[in-house]
Amino acid sequence: MDEQGRVEFTKEMKKDYRILIPTMLPRHLKMLAALLNAYGYHAELLENTGKEVIDTGLKYVHNDACYPATLVVGQFISALNSGKYDVHKTALFFTQTGGGCRASNYISLIRKALVKAGYGYIPVISLNFVGLEKNSGFKLSIPMMRRMLYSVIYGDVLMVLCNQVKAHEIHKGEAEAMADKWTKLCVDQLKKPGILPYSRIKKTYVDIIRDYKTIELDGIDKVKVGIVGEIYVKFSPLANRFLENYLIEEGAEPNMAGLMDFALFYIYGRVLEYDMYRIHKKSIHILRLAYKIFVRKQQDIIDAIHKESDFDAPTPFAHTVALAKPYVNYGVKMGEGWLLVAEMVEHIDRGTNNIVITQPFGCLPNHIVGKGVMKVVKDRNPGVNLIAIDYDASASEINQQNRIKLLLANAKQEIGPGEKN
Amino acid sequence: MSGSALVGVDIGSTTAKLVIRDGEQIIYRKYERHFSQVRTKTLQMLEDAESYLKDKEIKIAISGSAGLGLAEAAGIAFVQEVYATYALIKEREPGTDAVIELGGEDAKIIFLKGGVDERMNGTCAGGTGAFIDQMATLLNVTPDELDELSLQCEKIYPIASRCGVFAKTDIQPLINQGVQKSDIAASIYHAVVNQTIAGLAQGRRIEGKVVFLGGPLYYNKGLRKSFKEILKLDDAHAIFPDYALISVALGATIFASNQQETYSYEDILSSIRSTLSEKSKVNSMAPLFLTQADRDEFAARHAKENVEYADIKTYRGDAYLGIDCGSTTTKLVLMGAGKEILWSYYDSNKGNPVDVVKKQLLEVRSLCGENIRIAGSGVTGYGEQLIKNAFHVDKGLVETMAHFMAAKQFEPDVDFILDIGGQDIKCIKIKNNAVDSIMLNEACSSGCGSFIETFAKSMGYKAPEFALLGLDGDAPVDLGSRCTVFMNSSIKQAQKDGVSVENISAGLSVSVIKNAIYKVIRANSPTELGDHIVVQGGTFLNDAILRAFENEIGHPVIRPMIAGIMGAYGAAIYASESGIGESTLLSLDQLRNFTHTSKAAVCPGCTNHCSLTINTFSDGGKFISGNRCEKMNNGGKRKAEGLNLYEFKRKKLEEMFDSAAPDSDEAKASSNGKLTIGLPLQLGMYDLAPLWYGLFTDLGFRVKFSGFSSRNTYLAGQDSIPSDTACYPAKIMHGHIIKLVEEGVDAIFAPCLTYNLDENAGDNHYNCPIVAYYPELLKDNMDVLKQITYFQPFLNINDEKELAREFMMLMPESLGKFTEAQYLHAIRAGFERYHKYHEELRAEGERIVEEAHKRGMRIMVLAGRPYHVDPEINHGIDLLAESLGFAVITEDSIAYHVGRIPTKVLNQWTYHARLYSAAKYVTERDDMELVQLVSFGCGIDAITTDEVRAILEREGRIYTQIKIDEINNLSAVNIRLRSLLGALEMRDKEKQV
């Protein structure tokens, strides 16, 4: 352990250490795990969940730290405690953005928790693209990064389609089953050694879209609810108490933007910083190039969906960016920054007038870009329903549900308010 | 069937409401507490209304937060309560602009004009009705009496309005200081109103015609008055309808009338009955006792932990008196020379501790008669100073020390004491027979003991009775372990699911314990606490709590049978060991003639304008409380005047305000036709003020600062705060903007700085998200900004030329045109000022350290953020530290000695890097102690506090943390700092031995 408390993940460890990955976006990360395995690692996506995870997290994380930290630590430590793994041959894996909110310190919190729980010798691998922590046993090659990008895209495609279909399917469970099936197929494709031409990826989008078209739908008009928020709480069912499923049960159709948007936000954010402050001078060319590639890839999905189906496709990122402009300065970059605002407006732009803003209790950036913009978004878009919901270990589910019910009641106009004075 | 009926049921957190309508006419209404028996109660209420419902064709709808589960289980239509209210108001009060409804624990605002908008209280907003009940209990009056009292008030005291727990922390000391109950009562209502505005309006002004609904607003005249006053509403615009109590149920009848389905009376009863047996789905835990044998062993073991007693009537000789004037209770012990207890007293202080103590002293003095001489007396607890002065008690001691002294009697090797009192949790770690560290609960998790009591009462039980029920719970409900306000919501959930009282009681006990262990102590294994644990405090007299604690840590602990009076016992022991000789405690005659009056005043001593309570005693003695510094009780002098770097910082800033003032020479000389730029002095502006001041004056502007904050600054801007869980420094920004606009500035400059100055002390140099972007938030949440030029540019201040380029691009046209060279010149002038300010700061810091050495004083590094210098943000903690004999310096005056140090966290914020460096520096010096100030709601400090603690404790140093918020009372801080002082003194003694 070095003086900063870090245990390096060495080349030796790469041979036989099992790398545990927390559940945030189950499908995306399952593909990522498979991908790592294809490159000689032994990764596994954690699937432990529930009260045990939350309780363990509370035990090892500061009360004031945010909820995602509690859950991630809880999931790791309870997995290590489970006896399922040889703890002396296990490493943990987590992402780090290097941004100005405390999420960049989750890794430190995980390490502190490990020490507290007696696992101080377990290495934690940081996945980041800003050179924060280096591990001799964990390196990303260009082909690997490319395949990682594909897994993100597949994850997004499956999420977007599954959400649209799930709320309307006649035979319950079909959409999820199909997503599971495609996750497996995509994993098989990604982990197969050898050349993987992009044309094959594009072909796969088409196959997925076509497959989803075969699901029988009820054709009923449902209230569309957009979900935006802090990235972990927004995506992780463990954190948001299965918000998507709850909305579907309540007769609504949940919608959310995918992980690609966050990746684009992250890259483009640095380009913007160059424009605003003249920093990142050395990397600006690579950043611009990466941005172009990502935008292009997103456009391919959009085109495929439009060409093959009537499904709603993601919004082109440039348009997403433009939507935020009247509301928030692009300099607001911590946490989800201006992207969170952009996603709200994007939902409205697409005709989804009901939006749930999810955030961990006490989330700092969300004071600014969540609750902080509700007034202006409402003022400029009369008739839009916005609610902010705080998530944490002790937030009562009934309060949360009650607020969602209020949103839905407004949306359905059961008594017919809606007429504006 | 004979006719039809519309039924609306509203089940809130504490009450159930039933309304039956026949057409437009209300034929039946009922409002009852449901004592958490939601389903049984609903059934019973419907049965009671049989004569109105039998043989009718019924349409029904259920509403209310606790009604959701019932409606689902019974298959009856449910309408969200805000929605029900909306429908009702549209029908009954057309033209209404806003509806304010306060319920047991919910608060709602519905805005009807300009886009319907409903707001409900979030997870961090305390209850309202339940909160008022709790406060009434605290004052030992009924809610009705509280209302009566409030109408006679003379002075309003600031009470934190964020949540019940905070408010209570403010109220408790007011009670102990002897503030008039009527003033407290009215202040409580004011806090409720402010809470409603800050927590719910979130930037929307409440104006026009406002309808007030719900129980508290129906019953409390004083609360109505407060709402009308603060919202400035006349009788025509403040509507208090006669259906305020049952509005949601009445609204539900409207919803019912739109339902297709009709029921017979019997149908409804049977569908509700069918839910009674439904198995609950809540998370439950193992019972407190698995077997009867466990329970017997537990009872037998704890019965043994007792002290010797002697009969006060037969005892002869010297005795020692100990008084513990706690936050909610007063305890007295008379102890014989052999530490046997002769007499004791434990009861609520009934909101008037002086009277309680007087009565008991009379009693004990009479009992002593000629046979027993009181040879010494000691007092501890919140009311220590007041009682000491009132009754001439010989010795006062900080309560942590008192508890340690008492605990030693039961376990000489005690290494850990956990005391859960009415309002606070104290953990004392003992090492080498000295207090090693102390942890107090932060405002967020306090109130646990009295919470159980109040909750028991609300369910119709006495606290001990309620606790006993918990021992029988077969599946305690899991209520989480955050602050008590959250528990309230969890209980609501449990009630919804029909959990039994036994299991709620047991669950509550487990939650209180988990809260103490994992939140206050933050332990992760029992071995971390200690091997010889003594638990005490009134709350531990509750066997369910005790058992929950043993279960949680996995081994037995000692609970003295006198757990409730340990503080008083410790004070008596302290008195007996102090070699007092002749006690100054008032004699029987003096006690008989003793009277006490208190009145409120504002201290004229300095700009803090503390709210004082002047207690006058019949012997002419006076005690002044509520003051931050000791000046008023110390002959008008401060002990360490001039040795306070916080004060120096404020002085330097004030010099800048003065030279910026319109009537100063500097300003006059250049004021011709110049525009005035306003700089809001909060958050990042505190540190960078010299930079921006220098920059804009160099460009030829007049500069106006908003000045230091006060409570009124906060109140002026509170109706535009969008997120009530942000930190106080952020929320007070709104008031600074209002102030500048009112003072007529032409523009306000508030830069957004993702990156602060790079001081080469960390991995990066960010600002926190709030400091970085709060000015951006203000833009769209404060309508007053439309009246002026608001300039909130996103800047990079680490490169002068780049900064000049950015000003060229971003400077609003209305402020004029300048060349890049002019900007560069101004920027350099600004930085010159900035660096000069920091140099002066460091030099003064060094002078203070030297002077402190000369005088043999301890030095406190009061470490926080630059904006913690604000007197309203730190509430005068620097002055308090000074009054305890510390010279006070800041983290930024020493951090530069150290520079970058290796940390286990990602060291990426400029201000926080200073903290780490300062902590490291302190570990290298024997003469300094570090106390960290943390703003409540600061997410970043969740990271930094652990790291600063680790840096200090690694080198065997004491870490002290003080959380600050709107709370204006320093009593808790006082205990902390005095405990620190006590621990330091003990350490010094150890060293000398």
Task: Describe this protein's structure.
The complex is a heterodimer of chains A (421) and B (993). With 421 residues, chain A is an alpha/beta fold. Among the domains of chain A are: 11-138, 3-Layer(aba) Sandwich (Rossmann fold); 221-257 and 315-421, Rossmann fold. Chain A is built from 18 helices and 8 strands. A 4-stranded parallel β-sheet of chain A has the order 2-1-3-4. In chain A, helix 4 runs parallel beside helix 5 and helix 7 (174-191) runs antiparallel to helix 8 (198-213). Chain A is globular. Chain A starts with 10 loop residues before the first helix and ends in a 9-residue tail after the last helix. Mean pLDDT of chain A is 90; it is low at 414-421. Chain B is an alpha/beta fold. Chain B folds into 6 domains: 4-93 and 250-276, 2-Layer Sandwich (Nucleotidyltransferase, domain 5); 98-240, Nucleotidyltransferase, domain 5 (2-Layer Sandwich), CATH 3.30.420.40; 317-410 and 569-592, Nucleotidyltransferase, domain 5 (2-Layer Sandwich); 425-557, Nucleotidyltransferase, domain 5; 645-831, no CATH class; 839-992, 3-Layer(aba) Sandwich (Rossmann fold), CATH 3.40.50.11900. Chain B is 44% helix and 17% strand. Chain B is built from 37 helices and 30 strands. In chain B, the strands form 7 sheets. Chain B has a 5-stranded mixed β-sheet. A 5-stranded mixed β-sheet of chain B has the order 8-7-6-9-10, sandwiched between helices. The longest helix of chain B has 36 residues, at 820-855. Chain B starts with a strand and ends with a helix.
How many extended strands of chain A? 8
End-to-end separation of chain B: 93 Å
Give the overall form of chain A.
globular
Cα-atom radius of gyration of chain A:
21 Å
Largest interface: A-B, 81 and 93 residues
Strand order of the largest sheet of chain A: 2-1-3-4
With strands numbered from the N-terminus, the spatial order across the biggest sheet of chain B is 3-2-1-4-5
- Biggest sheet of chain B, in brief? 5 strands, mixed
Q: Structural class of the helix and strand makeup of chain A?
A: alpha/beta
Main pleated-sheet profile of chain A: 4 strands, parallel
Number of strands of chain B: 30
